[in-house]
Amino acid sequence: MASLKELRGRITGVKSTRKITNAMKMVAASKLRRAQSQAEAARPYAEAMRRMMAELAAATRGADAASLPTLLAGTGKDNVHLVVVLTSDRGLAGGFNANVVRSARQLIDSLLAEGKTVRILPVGRKGGDILVRHYPSMIVEQLSGTEGKDVGFDKASAVGAKIITMLEAGGIDRCTLVYNRFVNAMTQIAVQAPLVPLPVAENDNAEASDAAQYEFEPDEATLLAQLLPRNLQVQLFSALLESAAGEQGARMTAMDNASRNASKAIDRLSQKYNRTRQANITNELIEIISGAEAV
Amino acid sequence: MPLRIEIVSPEKRLVDREIDMVVVPGMEGDIAAMPDRAPLMLQLRGGVVALYENDKIVDRYFVAGGFVDMGPDRCTVLADSAQLMSELSADEARDRLRDLETQWAQIGPNDVDAHDRMSREIQSVRAEIEAVENPAFL
User: Fold this and answer.
1) Structural domains of chain B, count
2) In A85, A228, B21, B110, which residue has its Cα 20 to 30 A from A25's Cα atom?
């Protein structure tokens, strides 16, 4: 049986833990509001861009793949896959990072089973640490995430530039992005989004043959040279924002649970403490009374 | 048949409605989109997007570069930034132009990318001042 002193110590310990988790919850809640509005504001643009790119991909599908920019059609091969995984830099966010990493590992394992070469570009420290342990030889480079600051477009540009460099050097053939899509504070969904080659619009093939006569101004090469890197950056930026909002949401929920659990633990310990105290008093009384009777 | 126009900037969706015609500032000159046109993908310069209904301009937005995707029944404007014309101020734009011109003087002669980017930005701000001061010419 634990002594009264031990119990008191544990209660104070759990109380200070609760203080910390509660504070983290508050911080996450206020950061979430900001991150959420940013993520939601960026959605229409990224979506319109994605739609436009899908149409473009459909329109150029018939053309000879070798004549198209690699960002649009890929390299024409399907051997080396790059998997970009977005996670957070800090832990204590419930299953946030584990979810993305699980989805990424499923993708990587299925690609490996097909005999493809896989390279991994983790963005964010947490996911990087896990992936390095599982696939040490496939990591291209470990990038840090947003480090708790606001997501900047320059971060997306930097990651985009890395992908483009690898693609142009012929180091990779395809590229997929794995990240957490923000739904609400309770829910984030791990999504796998193909970046290279562009996913083709699925709607109907009848339109595709029609859309093949897309005109471009200025000429096709100039426009695509501007549009494709821009699209890559926008998609990465939007994913970074989604991931940042998801992280705060996940942390808020996790810390809320932790605070609640701490409260429960404190209740349990307090009850145990009081019972022990009562038992001690009863014991002392019995000792005094039986001592008096013996006299 | 009406034309569905969407103007989206990275910050928000500004317009999503049906109109008769829209005129956008293309890299090589203004282009009007009307229903049933051939699909076209277009790079924008800084300038004014004008929405027409019954042969009259109903709304004007200033866009600072971007891309347009036109189809037979829709026109999507992906602007680098977009604002309602009435929200613009010439003085504020002039300040920005001054900043840009000092930056322009500082970039090295061999930095082609920076030159390209800066000249696009300066063109866009000049167009903005022009648009605010002489709306009648548009």
Assistant:
1) 2
2) A85
Q: Using a CB-CB distance cutoff of 8 angstroms, which residues of chain B are in contact with residue A217?
A: 26-28, 31, 40-43
In the predicted structure, residue A279 carries a pLDDT above the cut 70: yes
- Helices A220-294, A153-168: crossing angle, 10 deg rounding: 120
Closest residue in A to B15 (Cα) is A44
* The pLDDT of residue A65: 59
Domain boundaries, chain A: 4-14+255-290, 22-252
pLDDT: is A8 or B101 the higher one? A8
The rounded distance, in Å, linking the Cα atoms of A145 and A87 is: 7
The CATH number assigned to the domain with range A22-252 reads 3.40.1380.10
Taking contacts as CB-CB distances below 8 angstroms, the residues of chain B near A41 are 11-12
pTM of the full predicted structure? 0.84
Tell me, what amino acid is at B85? M
How many angstroms separate the CA of residue A77 from the nearest CA in chain B? 27
Cα separations in angstroms, A263 against A14, A250, A259, B101: 8, 20, 6, 61
Residue A260 banded pLDDT, cuts 50, 70, 90:
very high
Give residue B78's pLDDT.
Answer: 92
Q: What ipTM did this prediction achieve?
A: 0.81
Hey, are the CB atoms on A216 and B76 less than 8 Å from each other?
no
